[in-house]
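URGENT: need a sanity check before tomorrow's submission.

F., can you look over the F-box domain-containing protein record below? I want to be sure the sequence and structure line up before it goes out.
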Amino acid sequence: MATLTLTANVATRRNRSLSLIAMRSPALFTLPAELIINILELALTDTRPRYLAFISKLIHHFVNAILYRTVVLDSATTIGLFHRTVTSKSLAPCHVRRLVILGTSESILSSKICQLHEIVAACPNLRTLDAPSLLYTTKTPVIKHFITANGPMELTLQTFEDPDNTPHAFSLLHMQGFASVTHLRICEPSDTWSSPLSIVATFRYLPSLTHLQLSRRTNSNEDNDAIFTKEVHHLLETRRALKMLVISVFNSQTWLSSATVVESNIWTLVSPIRASDRRLVLLEGEYDAWKEEWGASRRSYGGAVPTDFWKAVQRQVDLDVSIDT
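Structure tokens as predicted:
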């Protein structure tokens, strides 16, 4: 009898002990959210997300926060799938901080424009947008919902198309949402001429702007080259908060050598400004380079992390300075 009683007591203590262990939160969950995300980001470098998501509901939430932080839409399929996600009861849109619409064909973008509008509108915390242009063939700006967001924002456009010069286009000039944009990239020259000041004016003059990239093509109208140079100088003179102004110069023909860029009229005109203001950076432009920045990101389990354009430029500037000295 004593043996049975002792055995029962031991079993009871074990059950209570196991219950107490089950009630305790894992040590991981006692850490700050930022640290948990950092740990999971490391785990996701070589672990498929679904394996981690099965651990617990909390881990599942953090994994989604990482995966949906940056969303890359590079085909009609990915646009359609993510549109289905944002129009469901999923919390995924709340995690999106950066939305990337890579340049697929105009016909695809035209057919998906309504879905793109709904995607942008469904992401309340969106802070950064990368897109081929303000306008697509439907002449409707995909950005019209995005610019109402609050907080620092970055905008990357493959080319700039002035909405006021486009028939039936939606005018952006009355909108105030660009006041918080700090980084603006116009990665490639468009087929129509827009001066630097007119581009900035389209975005309501960008009062918070600290980083700007503009593009120009060689062998273009030389009068416009002179206007471009004068307005670049004006931007540097009047915007002391501007930390970096990158001018990407593209060959008018892709088969021309890089030497023709350095010898071009626009390069010759802008170069002297660089000598007096180190905030100006001259680069030889590469078509579709903005897309290639996302090349490796889609192979990562831990969400898309592109090449940081501004940091890459700064490293090149620092290297040039060290060589000069």
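My own read: Residues 2-23 form the longest helix (22 residues). The mean pLDDT is 79. If you see anything odd, call me.
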